[in-house]
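tl;dr need the bound structure. longer version: we got a ligand (zinc ion) that a collaborator sent over and nobodys looked at where it sits. i said id run it. heres the input, straight from their email, havent touched it
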Amino acid sequence: MLKVFALSCGALEFDRSLFFPGEAPGTRLVAPVSSYLVVHSKGRLIFDTGVHCDARTDPAGRLGKRIAELFKLRSGKDEDVVSQLALLELAPADIDYVACSHFHFDHCGCNASFPRAVFLAQRAELAIARSDRNRYNPKDWDLPVEYRELDGEHDVFGDGSVVLLPTPGHTAGHQSMWIRPAGGGQQFLMTADASYTREHLEKTILPGNTYDAAEMARSMEMLRNLRDRKGVTLLYGHDAEQWRALPQTTRPLF
Ligand SMILES: [Zn+2]
Ligand SMILES: [Zn+2]
């Protein structure tokens, strides 16, 4: 059994030039923030947990002054990962794994809500976070939880159906999630921030906050190959147009 649900975690509003560094500042962009629930016969997994709810009421307190000035959280009722799970009649305690694409605030803000889960993150991402080069918010990742540190590709349930795939460059240890249903069904790959939108992938647009540009361009090339040569459907990290067209919350992707 394999089911996947796209969970809405609200949206962020910010200057377009943060996403498209070639553009002049002054135009606003609203980008969706997402989380995905995978229900497998061997367990339940959440891929990314969105922005912490406190960012609605106390943005500077939760996100820090710099991030809070750049990004405004726009989220409606129930647009956070815990509320989305509740709509599916699930509680955080029902989740066995939390896979972290990376430790930016809009991807792991609610990690602390899953103290029982095993956290799956790339070793390189954790290493940077734990070093004196850390720029991530410790409230998001420095938690008393069990981390499984991954060195490359990771087959979560051992049957090839849910694979965490390293896509470094946006950050040191960024990873995406590749869903490969048994029996040859449609494959999906949640890119997270390896490619913010389809346009980023088409034009290899590297945002200003890129950790390693050459590596990010290589990751994008790999994603394009999976899409164009293997027919994998890519679900981009922050693509408003694509997100609007996706079945969400209680309606499974498949
Ligand atoms: Zn990011
Ligand atoms: Zn992001």
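gonna send this back to them w/ a short note. The radius of gyration is 17 Å.
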